[in-house]
Amino acid sequence: MPASRPLPQFDDVLDAAARIAPHAQVTPLLRADALDAATGARLVFKAEGLQRGGAFKFRGACNAVSCLSDAEAARGVVTHSSGNHGSALALAARLRAIPCHVVVPEGASPAKLALIAAQGAVLHRCEATIAAREAMCAQVQRATGATLVHPYADPRVIAGQGTATLELLAATPGLDAVVVPVGGGGLAAGAAIVVDGCAPGTSLVLAEPAGAADTLHALRTGSRDDAFVPDTICDGLRASLGEPNFRILRQHGAQVLAVDDADTIAAMRLLLAQLRLLVEPSSAIALAAVLGDRARFAGKRVGIVLTGGNVDPSALPWSAP
Amino acid sequence: MPASRPLPQFDDVLDAAARIAPHAQVTPLLRADALDAATGARLVFKAEGLQRGGAFKFRGACNAVSCLSDAEAARGVVTHSSGNHGSALALAARLRAIPCHVVVPEGASPAKLALIAAQGAVLHRCEATIAAREAMCAQVQRATGATLVHPYADPRVIAGQGTATLELLAATPGLDAVVVPVGGGGLAAGAAIVVDGCAPGTSLVLAEPAGAADTLHALRTGSRDDAFVPDTICDGLRASLGEPNFRILRQHGAQVLAVDDADTIAAMRLLLAQLRLLVEPSSAIALAAVLGDRARFAGKRVGIVLTGGNVDPSALPWSAP
Hints:
homodimer; alpha/beta; Rossmann fold; four-stranded parallel beta sheet
């Protein structure tokens, strides 16, 4: 996407909310006294793992698919993602009964590919490099006329992801802080737009794996580094921050907390025990960030977006081998 | 409780709903396309594991405590339960700032006792027989003047548990069936009262462990057997059906499905994978009942009460030893 493309605005999030309303869940807000006690804060969790497809990603994908004209829609959509965005886009396309192409790198988890295929999407395999998957996407676009729906840099996706934070803030006015994970920055940029638009007194805190802290680096230095090699259990947060996402977060002045994987796994276990909710490491990281900075959050009302729950219960990271 | 004590009525459930509203959560309703596909039915889950204290038990305990006069309340409450009812009563008592005594049998899980003690209740240990715990309860009552709040036979408890089904039916009109687990029968009797009171076209189906199927037997033969020895992983469903509970369920004509533990464990795993919710075996049994009788539920709109989530994530029944 060219850098000159206009950034999504608060009104785009409101439009997205109306557009996805017939399809998406308004996910529940959960609380647990024990987690308030553990953090010293008053926490409310937005349970996006209970969203259709098991992650907030359906919001952005559904908004993007809903924005297409009938002529565009008939030619289908294409993306490159072997994770939650791939299956979310496949689900959104299936609901509109249009073709969906998903470019997946060699080595992607067979379970995730099965999820995408189960939604009726066509899989296109390629080498596990950024160049290879962009080339394959371009090839599919040329061959089919499908519209590219980028996992996090697409403005329709950013606006759609913003609806998660919109629902959170609408249902719990007066939050002191909202904490969301950051990977490519779709959810984070959407959250920044919404906070600016309707809750400027709320601070936005991004939780990022210490082993993939390119957003922290980019906001500190003022320039993105998309050549870094991520090393984290948070497979949903390995992508490097998108260009429009960077501009939105920089303009907003978002703060980033880097979190070690061990703390993320401990938070995941705590959420399962105390909130009875299974979440991915990429989601649990937001609670880990709050647990890791008690002084910042003590006594505050904090909203946490638990982004998704697509994790194999047989392979929890603390199970005996 | 004497058999002549009047049975709770629908109005008692409505009163209970108003009474507990300032304290209890209206728990969320969850759906998952994959579970609809697995059962051939349209399922909606009432997630009582997200209730305060982690189980529906808080509803009945809170209603019972709220019913007490100030003079009664000052003398406290007492019960015998080492499980969810014990900690729910302790929580309800703490919220009203009154004493709570919990009689616990030798051999009860230290983790569960810690939960009860953490709510500020006084623990009274006794031998692991029904006679011993009733004697100890009577002794505490004599010594303190505390009011006994029986885990499932108390009419205030039954009315309180009915509010879970009331919320479910109010939020999803037109259900063909409601499925709830049955142990002592507090939740089940409450559900029967509510179905009779506001949704007579909805059938009530009770899920009971095959290794503790005294309710199935009682409703078939017309007489209770409280001398049976339960053998099931569903530790919340080992109690024998209470006397008023039996009368209510018999009058209603509830149906019972017996479920093997292996099927319950499979359903527990499915709920964790597809609904991202950790539930106790005693809760998962309700989904197992639906999975085990596809013909009965195919094409139907079915509400399932997932009663609680108090289970140790480190000791899931399918983990490697």
